[in-house]
Design goal:
Number of helices: 10
Radius of gyration: 37 Å
Number of strands: 16
Mean pLDDT: 78
Number of domains: 3
Shape: elongated
Largest sheet: 5 strands, antiparallel
Strand content: 25-35%
Helix content: 40-55%
Order of helices and strands: HHHHHHHHEEEEEEEEEEEEEEHHEE
CATH class of the largest domain: Mainly Beta
Oligomer: single chain
Length: 371
């Protein structure tokens, strides 16, 4: 079949046909609406370029060129080439529409034969294939279906059965999906890729109080709650980034590489100021200890209250005690103090055990800046 198409669409054949009288071209064009300003010369140039693209295996590029050629001039040769391109892309329904749109009135015999063969091929394929329409996010993503690459989305017919779709794009996580197609069925599938990202953790010796952070040259806002500790983290796209810590006139910068689903830890150790990490941890663990002590005292008070109730019941007395109020208050206060101290001071001051620590790079050391 490809051999027949190639013979029918030889460049020399169509150059002669496109060199016919303008009157004949006008009659052909008049049968196809939408050509307000026909330009046979430009259409012929695009037609030949599309044929070269198709022969080189670039069907998507050929389709773009031949579609533009059809806009300039509605010659049957152009629509036959467009149909052939659509068939090579597996877009059988659109190829069939393009072929059936060609009027057979005054159509040369070789063209009629090629048109009939194309219609037969498209219908035969549709009788054993299913229609897949794949929408990709981001639009620049590339789909690989059964080993064949598709760009700018997918609108094609595939043999009935199961197909594996792999979608990939730079800066995004590759996703693989299987689709089952039945004969004549249409499957509309949307695949939205997730950004490829990792985590950056910055630990500032002396705490975040009074420290300005910058990420890739832009301010990195830090909430007041986080400034009670010395660690802040952020999800970033995979790749190289630069983080800077500034306290007063002191500036420390680091270049880091964030990997997919990994955590990279950076330490700003030279800018000083504020309480040290040891001091923050000491206060945090002290708060935890004090909370536990208060909670224990409260639990002891509640235990005494229930013991008094039990004693009164056994001896037929009326229990006159309010230990449960104080016990519950101490217990709740102790738990609140202990948990808050751990979350705000201890946990946020712990380095990530799975993080990769990076030292300042040689070409970007910490330095004092004059302002």
């Amino acid at each position: 079949m490809n051999r027949v198409w190639s013979q029918r669409l030889s460049a020399s054949w169509y150059v002669r046909l496109l060199g016919m009288s303008l009157v004949g071209f006008a009659l052909t064009c008049a049968a196809l609406p939408g050509f307000a300003e026909p330009d046979p010369a430009k259409a012929n140039t695009l037609f030949k370029a599309a044929k070269v693209k198709l022969e080189a295996g670039d069907a998507h590029g050929a389709l773009s060129l031949v579609s533009r050629a059809a806009d300039y001039f509605g010659h049957p040769a152009i629509f036959l080439l467009k149909a052939k391109t659509l068939l090579s892309l597996g877009r059988y329904q659109k190829a069939l529409e393009a072929l059936e749109s060609i009027s057979t009135r005054k159509l040369p015999a070789p063209f009629k034969k090629t048109r009939a063969e194309g219609i037969k091929e498209a219908k035969a394929a549709m009788a054993t294939h299913g229609h897949l329409v794949l929408t990709l996010q981001p639009p620049a993503a590339v789909a690989v279906i059964d080993g064949k690459r598709y760009a700018l989305g997918v609108d094609t017919w595939l043999p009935a059965g199961a197909h594996e779709i792999k979608v990939e794009a730079q800066g995004f996580v590759t996703e693989t999906k299987r689709v089952q197609l039945g004969v004549g069925d249409r499957a509309d599938v949307t695949i939205a890729l997730k950004p490829a990202a990792g985590t950056l953790r910055v630990q500032v010796t002396g705490g975040l109080k009074g420290v300005e952070l910058e990420l890739d040259g832009k301010p990195w806002p830090v909430g007041e709650g986080k400034r009670a500790g010395d660690i802040v983290s952020k999800r970033l796209g995979v790749g190289e980034h630069e983080v800077s810590c500034r306290r007063g006139s002191l500036l420390e910068s680091h270049k880091v590489r964030v990997a997919l689903n990994k955590t990279v830890a950076v330490g700003c150790t030279q800018i000083g100021g504020g309480p040290s990490r040891v001091a923050v941890l000491s206060v945090g663990w002290g708060g935890v200890a004090a909370g536990l002590a208060l909670a224990g005292y409260g639990a002891w008070g509640l235990q005494g209250y229930f013991a008094d109730l039990d004693y009164a019941e056994k001896n037929g007395l009326i229990a006159d005690t309010n230990k449960h109020y104080g016990g519950a208050l101490y217990l709740a206060s102790g738990l609140a103090i202990g948990v808050s101290s751990y979350l705000l001071l201890v946990r946020d001051s712990k380095p990530d055990a799975g993080a990769t620590a990076l030292a300042p790079v040689a070409d970007a050391p910490w330095h004092a800046s004059a302002r």
